Amino acid sequence: MTLEPPAPIDFDTLSRTAIGHAQAASGNIWTDYNIHDPGVTLLEQTCYALTEVSFQATHTTPDLLTNAKGAIQFDQLSLFLPAETLPGDPVTLLDLAAELAEVAGAARVLISRGPQVGLLDAVIIPAPGAPGTDAKTITTQVLADVTRAFRARRPLGCDLNNLHVAERAPAQLSGIVEITGTAIPERVAAEIYYHISAILRGQAVGTEIAAGATRQTVYDHPQTYLHAPSDQDGKVPNLENHLTDLRAIPGVSDITDMSLARQKPTSAQAEEIAGVHYLDLTVPEVSSDIDLVLTLNGVPLTLDANQILEEFVRVSADHIAKAQHHLEAADWAPPSPGQRRSFETAPVDALLPNVYQAEARKSPEAQLLERYRAAINAHLKEMSVTLRDLPSFLKRSTQENTADPAVQRERIALLDFLIAHQGEEMPKTLHAGLHTYRTAAERGSFGIRWRLDFLDALPRLNRGRGSGPEGGKPGTFLEKFRLLADLKRGNGEGLARAGQDISPSGAAEPAGVEPDFPRSELKLPANPFDMLIPRDISADPLSIDALREASPWSSDTSCPSDLFVRAASPGCFVVSEKADGTFGVFFDGGHATHLFTCAVFETHADAVTFTQRLRASWKRQHMFAEGAYLVEDILLRTAGVDFAPNTATLVLTGWTARTTQPTYRSYVEGLIHALSPAHLLIEPLWLEHQEMVQFEDLHHQYLAGDVEAKRSLRAFLSDRKVSR
């Protein structure tokens, strides 16, 4: 849809409005409103200038966004091209059927509801194989490929119950077709056989596709997905739905009758097609098997079976050669750049004849008029500069790293505007605990980067809205949730072990030595605030060996849970001069009389640098341990329908400085409620470290296909939710 810009305000309208305001402002002092009056002349000057700016402002959007080189920088302006946003993962069974039908080797995939909510049954009608290809090889391959495609596109809360490749059941075509006088009868018959075969396999007539379906096919020919393949109850597709397309075949004048009949199978064939099957048209090999009657002027014609077969091969080759996806150009073509306009404005005096300009300079009010015109010129220039700089102003990355709070607020407001244009909004983060690890100065730059990441991800997230995890891949729901919750890790990434090097043990006492430095020996500086070290966001974390050595309250792999959380607080680390003139870095573990000595340095600067690195190391320990797993109960079923439909558990880290805060947990649970699909109940489950170790062990075994681990994982989650 193209939106036309509003018409620019014309001069007469501006002039009438301006004179009305002048009358109201001057009262009884000014009585001459004719064009020869100097005041009216000034008003007209201003109106002409404003008309020009109004004209500039009402250029088309491409004109306003085109840069000086005549191009629209779509990526920098966060304008997503149609190819990035229009393709979407399935949201209905019809969508899913069309998606899976795109798999090589599948002509059509039919989806139906299974024995319980969320379970789906699927039938694959295979595409014709190459001559000499083993049918069992085709079946095995298409089953694997469709299953893989389903896993990649699976909507949340859904899983396959049964997947079958339908067996071919031969059918015979009969009917009466009137042809034109110039048509070749065998060619027309071959076209009819080809089109009916395509209909039976789910390839809509007139769509010239090699196999499967496209978005356009689903829109134009939904009937190909609405009837099931022939099965035990003997259903046959209704050809009446396709007569209009069949009559469009070149050489066909009219179709008065058309029907299909399943051929009586041999005993061997009957055993093969006892299950799910589909009708497949048999091209007659001898003339006596031809039940399709072609007439010319009502007179039946004699058809040659061998020639029909030859023409059928040619027709098939022609259609394959012309195969293409049908995409609407208007949907997919990127908009063309506009024409870069000039947004320069002439001074208001330039609109007057020279004689008026000369007289104005001699006027007693020349200085007053000069100030007036200077003010008008400055105002007009400001308006035009805004238009001129629009492509630069709207660049989402402009001044991204600025430390100026005013500019940061401006950038955040612009990014929120761009996000709103995608139908989204950022969650409120005030008092949310989201910034536990950040200083006030860091929050502005994080707010910009956070929004940029979200904006960049939106096309992908919206295309796959509501898709579920597949192994270690998060799926779009979990990916969106993690982005907004500021969680870096997720399914399969080992939060309890690989995510950190020192873990909370849950022990009540330090795993290493006791605090060793008496608080009474701290040498207070003249300014007590000098003991507090400002955070340096660029500080490099220490190596794991250096971190362990500088953290005596921990062992090689663990420390008490309360000290693990406390170590993420920057205020617990202080630098103080010792009695011998050296500078110590100390950790306040909450002991009443003593501190832990982390390191000692000759200079205050070295102690400060080390403290900043030590704090960055503990911050990383916490942030790397934070993440989420999404586990759907339907995927944990072990026998038939043994599961709770439309339920899932979001397993979350629950032992770090941020994730132990009630405010952050409330923020996260609000996100879950806002982002969850309407049909799905997702329950949060915050685990302690040792619980996460158990969970991840079971989850890894479950992904590897261990059925017993699947049972244990379901029981583990159920027990933890009950105990909460």
Count the DSSP helices: 25
- The first-to-last residue Cα distance is 52 Å
DSSP helix fraction: 40-55%
Radius of gyration: 37 Å
Alpha-beta classification: alpha/beta
Which parts are unreliable, with pLDDT below 50 for 5 consecutive residues or more? 203-215, 223-235, 323-327
Estimate the strand proportion: 5-15%
Structure characterization notes:
The chain has 724 residues and is of the alpha/beta class. The chain is built from 25 helices and 17 strands. Strands 4, 5, 6, 7 and 8 form a 5-stranded mixed sheet that branches. A hairpin with a 6-residue loop joins strand 13 (583-587) and strand 14 (594-601). Helix 1 packs across helix 2 (38-57), helix 17 runs parallel beside helix 18 and helix 18 runs antiparallel to helix 19 (475-484). The longest helix has 24 residues, at 440-463. It is flat and about 110 Å long.
Summarize the SSE layout with pairings:
Elements: H1 11-26, H2 38-57, H3 61-65, H4 82-85, H5 93-100, E1 106-113, E2 119-126, H6 135-153, E3 159-165, E4 167-179, H7 185-201, H8 215-220, H9 223-226, H10 243-247, E5 252-262, H11 267-272, E6 277-281, E7 291-296, E8 299-300, H12 305-321, H13 329-332, H14 354-362, H15 366-388, H16 390-393, H17 405-421, H18 440-463, H19 475-484, E9 503-504, E10 517-518, H20 544-549, E11 558-559, H21 561-566, E12 573-577, E13 583-587, E14 594-601, H22 604-623, E15 628-632, E16 647-653, H23 662-675, E17 681-687, H24 689-703, H25 707-723
Parallel strand pairs: 2-3, 4-6, 4-7, 9-11, 16-17
Antiparallel strand pairs: 1-2, 4-5, 7-8, 10-14, 12-13, 13-14, 15-16
